[in-house]
């Protein structure tokens, strides 16, 4: 059996699915980039990605999504040094509280009624601020993000992989793309957790992410083409195994 | 091993991906040269067609009044700018479906008494009987403003306290020690009839005993200004030609209020006259038409009044980038719609 043998309606449905996956991947990348870059659509540096997943939570936010609200880059470094020194309360009172008041607490306070108020993450007291000084993403976020990512993406990969298996491209390319997709998915999910403990793992996340999305995009594109035309260069010749 | 991977990753990062830790302005206004005469009347002459337009979405508000807020919470402001060898000009236009100029009016009651209408929220500010306003802040020497714009001077109160002091106001404006920000404040009732902005500035004062407006001050003035039209719980002044839609008593035309003003049902709550001195540096005229305010203004590129160097932005280097921010007040004393980040103006 191959995809081309399906009736046109089935091939239209498969093509629509593949196009949706490709579009979805583009918007997913955009969402990830903007979450790292504070709303900007520039390609983030590897350091920024690493900081998001492995860095000190408040420092990562000040460098990333909250960067536009930070008055001076020196403030980010001051907070980093304070956390690495063990978050002494005396330094909080003498230096950190002013940074929080200048750049954070307008929105990050329980009583804030500003448009972008973040009342769920108050930063008005020492106790509140040190809640955000752990490394990596919070467990509450990792737990939700990891399981939904695994469930949703594995389903998509299975559908794409299963459909790919009925295309006429070389078998070794099918094995490679399906394996890459799952390896990327597992690598992504595991890296989010491991980055909390091993900072260097944060640098791997862009590569595992690229592995997953690249493999998915390639599968979707190949299936889409194979529905209607012969995919150039990688299609098995008739009778070839 | 970890170090090796980190080193490889960092090297790849520096080679492939450019660092993005940098401040980017929300928008850039290109100010062009004009050799034409610009009439400040709130109507765009054809010369304005040549000026590039900067469109800015204003969708942030600082607080939610406890007695409700019917003003706009989102609008788009379009800004154009030109200059000649003496002045800088701006033409601003923003959507505001209601023309609001009914600021604390006196209304004659059925029993013949007079009542000044107001509807203040729990912070002591009115959003019902007020006026439309507009504000531009220009950085003078506050470093954070170049990145954050107006957010660099905005400090919201927490639990009724500002800098540890009891304070009912939702927020205050002040700067870092030794720095100032220029504040141009157009007021539909109090300054527009005089064809002016209220030229103000923000400094580092956080002592309400020294200045009840904290860091916010009017520029030095030699005369003029506005004041409440009140004496002994009644209007202090009327005006010979008062009409139902008169919004302000012009100081030069005021006549003492008397109880025999029976034919008048409504008396404006404010008396105004044009500022003289630095506070009146900005000539302006706002015209509301078809759901939009059109505001045209001019100011000398370089001002020379008392303390002009610390109270006014000086456009004395046309190669420099000037950081600014804009906001709009819809019939509101302090609630306003603004943008995050900073805008830049460059001279072309």
From TrEMBL, chain A:
The chain crosses the membrane at residues 12-36, 142-163, 175-194, 200-225. Keywords: Membrane, Transmembrane, Transmembrane helix. It comes from the Bacteria. The keyword Transmembrane helix applies. This is Uncharacterized protein. It comes from Neptunomonas antarctica.
Automatic annotation (TrEMBL), chain B:
Keywords: Electron transport, Heme, Iron, Metal-binding, Signal, Transport. Residues 45-341 form the Cytochrome c-552/DMSO reductase-like haem-binding domain. SUPFAM superfamilies: CBD9-like (SSF49344). SMART domains: EB_dh. Residues 195-227 are annotated as: Disordered. Pfam families: EB_dh (PF09459). GO terms for molecular function: heme binding; metal ion binding. Residues 207-220 have a biased composition (Basic and acidic residues). Residues 1-23 form the signal peptide. This is Ethylbenzene dehydrogenase.
């Amino acid at each position: 059996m191959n995809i081309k043998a399906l009736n046109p309606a089935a091939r239209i449905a498969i093509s629509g699915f593949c196009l949706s996956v490709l579009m979805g991947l583009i918007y997913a990348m955009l969402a990830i980039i903007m979450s790292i870059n504070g709303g900007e659509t520039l390609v983030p540096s590897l350091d920024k990605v690493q900081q998001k997943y492995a860095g000190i939570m408040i420092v990562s936010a000040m460098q990333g999504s909250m960067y536009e609200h930070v008055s001076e880059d020196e403030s980010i470094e001051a907070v980093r040094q304070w956390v690495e020194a063990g978050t002494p309360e005396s330094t909080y009172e003498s230096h950190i509280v002013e940074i929080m008041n200048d750049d954070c607490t307008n929105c990050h306070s329980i009583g804030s009624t500003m448009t972008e108020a973040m009342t769920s993450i108050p930063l008005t007291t020492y106790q509140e601020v040190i809640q955000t000084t752990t490394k990596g993403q919070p467990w509450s976020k990792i737990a939700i993000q990891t399981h939904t990512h695994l469930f949703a993406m594995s389903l998509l990969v299975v559908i794409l992989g299963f459909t790919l298996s009925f295309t006429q491209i070389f078998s070794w390319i099918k094995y490679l793309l399906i394996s890459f997709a799952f390896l990327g998915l597992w690598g992504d999910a595991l890296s989010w957790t491991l980055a909390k403990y091993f900072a260097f793992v944060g640098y791997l996340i862009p590569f595992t992410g690229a592995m997953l999305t690249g493999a998915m995009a390639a599968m979707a594109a190949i299936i889409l083409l194979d529905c209607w035309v012969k995919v150039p260069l990688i299609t098995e010749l008739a009778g070839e195994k | 091993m970890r170090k090796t991977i980190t080193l490889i990753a960092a090297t790849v990062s520096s080679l492939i991906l450019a660092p993005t830790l940098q401040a980017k302005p929300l928008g850039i206004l290109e100010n062009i040269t004009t050799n034409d005469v610009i009439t400040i009347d709130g109507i765009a002459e054809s010369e304005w067609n040549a000026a590039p337009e900067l469109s800015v979405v204003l969708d942030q508000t600082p607080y939610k009044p406890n007695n409700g807020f019917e003003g706009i919470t989102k609008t788009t402001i379009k800004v154009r700018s030109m200059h000649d060898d003496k002045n800088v000009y701006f033409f601003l236009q923003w959507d505001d479906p209601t023309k609001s100029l009914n600021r604390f009016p006196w209304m004659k009651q059925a029993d013949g008494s007079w009542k000044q209408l107001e509807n203040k929220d729990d912070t002591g500010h009115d959003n019902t009987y007020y006026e439309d306003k507009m504000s531009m802040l220009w950085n003078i020497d506050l470093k954070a403003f170049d990145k954050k714009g107006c957010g660099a001077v905005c400090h919201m109160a927490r639990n009724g306290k500002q800098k540890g002091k009891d304070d009912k106001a939702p927020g205050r404006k002040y700067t870092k020690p030794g720095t100032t920000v220029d504040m141009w404040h157009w007021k539909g009732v109090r300054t527009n009839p005089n064809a002016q902005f209220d030229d103000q500035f923000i400094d580092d004062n956080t002592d309400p005993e020294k200045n009840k407006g904290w860091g916010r001050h009017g520029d030095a003035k030699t005369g003029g200004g506005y004041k409440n039209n009140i004496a002994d719980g009644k209007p202090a002044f009327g005006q010979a030609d008062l009409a139902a839609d008169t919004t302000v008593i012009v100081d030069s035309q005021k006549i003492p209020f008397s109880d025999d003003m029976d034919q008048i049902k409504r008396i404006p709550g404010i008396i105004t006259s044009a500022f003289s001195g630095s506070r009146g540096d900005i000539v302006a005229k706002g015209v509301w038409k078809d759901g939009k305010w059109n505001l045209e203004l001019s100011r000398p590129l370089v001002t020379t009044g008392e303390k002009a160097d610390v109270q006014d932005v000086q456009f004395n280097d046309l190669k420099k980038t000037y950081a600014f921010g804009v906001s709009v007040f819809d019939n509101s004393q302090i609630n306003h719609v603004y943008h995050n980040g900073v805008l830049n103006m460059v001279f072309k």
